[in-house]
Amino acid sequence: MTPEEFRAHGKQVVDWIADYLAGIEAHPVRSQSAPGDVRAALPAHPPERGEPFEAVLADLDRVVLPGITHWQHPSFFAYFPANASGPAILGDLLSSGLGVQGMVWATSPACTELETVVVDWLAELLGLPAHFTFAEGSAGGGVIQDSASSAALVALLAALDRAGGGVPAAAGLSGRHTVYVSSQTHSAVEKAARITGIGAENVRIVDVDPHTLAMLPADLDAKIAADIAAGATPVLVCATVGTTGTTAVDPVADIGAVCRDRGLWLHVDAAYAGVAAVCPEMRWINDGVAEFADSYATNPHKWLLTNFDCTVLWVADRAPMVDALSILPEFLRNTATESGEVIDYRDWQISLGRRFRALKLWSAIRWYGAEGLRAHIRSGIALAAGFAGHVRADERFLLHEPHPFGLVCFRPLWTGLDVDAENAATLAMLERLNDSGALYLSHTKVSGRVLLRLAVGVPTTRREHLDAAWDRIREEYEGPA
Ligand SMILES: *Cc1c(COP(=O)(O)O)cnc(C)c1O
């Protein structure tokens, strides 16, 4: 494709995306494809001769779109949002256009240095401590990862390195190591324990408060003490700010005090909710982070207007992480690395190669400014609070509280059913709602009961979308027409 051909087709693609986003409400939110539909509509074999780009665009409409669940639809309320925005899409396009691979500083200095500035910007916007930035005298810093799961794995490898006195986990774990989570912690931490060789059987599930679902520090301390008495080496605690199920907030300061006493690494997983701290009135979610967190991760790709993938991981001390992950094969030797004056981000992540992800976050932050980012978060919280008000006012539904962010969990109350039958009725109602294409919700389970989850956060969602969702939910509750 010549630059002139690229210019022409590039304009078609940008137009296609703009039309898609402008007309997104015409689509059913959840794809109505059956398994195999998309595959069956595609040729089994690749073309021998090149095709015009228009053929790709035609298949995008014919084959791909019907198999798309529209995450940017204003009535998409499932999981957590995966924000996209014009500036972030364009920033990502620029990254593709440059086509650089930023594994070490020398392979594109701007790819590394822009990232260091943008993660420092975000730390400042969120009110995170200076020791997470690259400020003069700081031992820490931030890095963009593909996902919060990778961030948890990197944190665990760093924690193992520190616990082992600088022996990387890759050298083989000596003895039994333990990791602490709650029943509400994301499964990424158990996965990281499996990958590192710690093993799922050495992941301890700390008790939570039955109402707030926040981890109980006293039980954490007791479980650590029991493991030490049994000869294990406790390594890491993961505290969550905004759990995936219900956005519960673990008491980071109290958990951190236990970690400090016992010498464990504290990783704070704020994948969804951490970005809410752009608003000063939400800064309470950072309580204890400055004093106690060894690492902290949040996902601008969920709720901060930045296309997937963009997780920012900060560490208070980069030495154990770099020690755990650095490799220097001959082909990567270069004078900049040897000078020690540059950051080589390959030592801050699992893979060697890396995309220029900072461009999309930089574009989004510059376009919206701090005030635009705050307005987006505030709108999500306010719309969620409005929806929660509907649920609270209707005695046929039970609202799960608190709901400090954009997620509202609730359940319909059914009369004359046991718990299993209630759960089945709630799930059947959820299926009918999602099948309708009018909205998309997800669910979780708390104390054996199914809760519906409605997560606000798509940038174009307005009050009318939530009012329509509430009408629809009540109609389905009252019975299929
Ligand atoms: C979404 C989520 C994750 C996983 O995020 P990925 O970036 O998809 O790996 C981890 N932890 C929490 C609390 C989450 O909400």
From TrEMBL:
<dbReference type="InterPro" id="IPR015424">
    <property type="entry name" value="PyrdxlP-dep_Trfase"/>
</dbReference>
<keyword id="KW-0032">Aminotransferase</keyword>
<dbReference type="InterPro" id="IPR015421">
    <property type="entry name" value="PyrdxlP-dep_Trfase_major"/>
</dbReference>
<feature type="modified residue" description="N6-(pyridoxal phosphate)lysine">
    <location>
        <position position="302"/>
    </location>
</feature>
<dbReference type="InterPro" id="IPR002129">
    <property type="entry name" value="PyrdxlP-dep_de-COase"/>
</dbReference>
<dbReference type="GO" id="GO:0004058">
    <property type="term" value="F:aromatic-L-amino-acid decarboxylase activity"/>
</dbReference>
<keyword id="KW-0210">Decarboxylase</keyword>
<dbReference type="InterPro" id="IPR015422">
    <property type="entry name" value="PyrdxlP-dep_Trfase_small"/>
</dbReference>
<keyword id="KW-0045">Antibiotic biosynthesis</keyword>
<dbReference type="GO" id="GO:0017000">
    <property type="term" value="P:antibiotic biosynthetic process"/>
</dbReference>
<keyword id="KW-0663">Pyridoxal phosphate</keyword>
<keyword id="KW-0456">Lyase</keyword>
<dbReference type="GO" id="GO:0030170">
    <property type="term" value="F:pyridoxal phosphate binding"/>
</dbReference>
<dbReference type="GO" id="GO:0019752">
    <property type="term" value="P:carboxylic acid metabolic process"/>
</dbReference>
<comment type="similarity">
    <text>Belongs to the group II decarboxylase family.</text>
</comment>
<dbReference type="GO" id="GO:0008483">
    <property type="term" value="F:transaminase activity"/>
</dbReference>
<dbReference type="InterPro" id="IPR010977">
    <property type="entry name" value="Aromatic_deC"/>
</dbReference>
<keyword id="KW-0808">Transferase</keyword>
<protein>
    <submittedName>
        <fullName>Aspartate aminotransferase family protein</fullName>
    </submittedName>
</protein>
<dbReference type="GO" id="GO:0005737">
    <property type="term" value="C:cytoplasm"/>
</dbReference>
<dbReference type="Pfam" id="PF00282">
    <property type="entry name" value="Pyridoxal_deC"/>
</dbReference>
<dbReference type="GO" id="GO:0006520">
    <property type="term" value="P:amino acid metabolic process"/>
</dbReference>
